[in-house]
Amino acid sequence: MLCVLWFLMLVMSDSISERLNSFLCTLAGRSHALAKGQVSLVGAGPGDPELLTLRALRRIAEADVVLYDNLVGPEILQWVTEGAECYYVGKKAAKHALPQDDVNQWLIDLARAGKRVVRLKGGDPFVFGRGGEEMDALLEAGIAVEVVPGITAAVGCAAYAGIPLTHRDWAQSVTFATGHLKHGLDELDWAGLSRPTQTVEFYMGMTAADGIAEALIAHGRSPETPVAVIYHGTRPDQKVVIATLKTLAKQISAEAIKPPALLIVGEVVRLYRPN
Ligand SMILES: C[S@@+](CC[C@H](N)C(=O)[O-])C[C@H]1O[C@@H](n2cnc3c(N)ncnc32)[C@H](O)[C@@H]1O
Fold this sequence. Notes:
Blueprint: H1 2-30, E1 38-43, H2 54-62, E2 65-68, H3 74-77, E3 85-88, E4 91-92, E5 95-96, H4 100-112, E6 117-121, H5 131-140, E7 144-148, H6 153-161, E8 173-178, H7 190-193, E9 198-203, H8 209-218, E10 226-231, E11 239-244, H9 248-254, E12 261-265
Parallel strand pairs: 1-6, 1-7, 2-3, 2-6, 8-9
Antiparallel strand pairs: 4-5, 9-12, 10-11, 10-12
The structure holds S-adenosylmethionine.
The site of S-adenosylmethionine has 24 residues, from helix 6 and strand 12.
């Protein structure tokens, strides 16, 4: 009986990979390849390599040069073709590996040298990824640029923690905000973010977690509002800590959670069930 099951699984998996191969061939025939002198701003998703889009995978494999961020892991970089150049230009909060202007200029120079360039970023290039600045600089320099969207951390982390971002009973809207602002937390619209029946997700909110919780409470959100802190979401070492606005800072420090982590604030967090 076991042998029969094993044989069936083998036949089925063969047929899946055949179908997948033929699907990929059809797609490759239909979509255009990355051109010489073109830059592709590619979203690599939140970590799990299976969350890469097919277009992202294709662009990584086609590139002559890849400039990547610190949130892009080795499982994804293994798809860079042998012989292609691959450089780390990532930024860790307050420790910029390379100033943004230098990255922009490097992309322009590589494209002008006729390379097929991939700028590979964690999550989505246009969600707190400075993709907009890079696109502007490239267009201004007359370089052809495309954007390949990726699954942003807010969506990937919520899904892997089993927390729905909207829910007919609990949250009618969802907002993505950053906890890392040029001129401090006052730049955010706290009255808007504090309204009930919405979910708010904070990127880069770990160092400012205390201030974020204080501001939300001061603007009317209940101190008992649940908050999920998700470290390394979608990765094998993903960690989820459930707190409330009142206990957030204390729990982050007690559990020693470090960036990269995401905060999900709202009643939907009550639906979280640990595995
Ligand atoms: C500079 S932002 C880049 C966001 C990215 N462009 C995106 O769309 O997800 C970096 C922040 O995203 C969040 N982040 C990215 N990947 C994450 C992950 N796998 N788990 C938790 N948070 C993540 C963290 O808040 C981190 O500090």
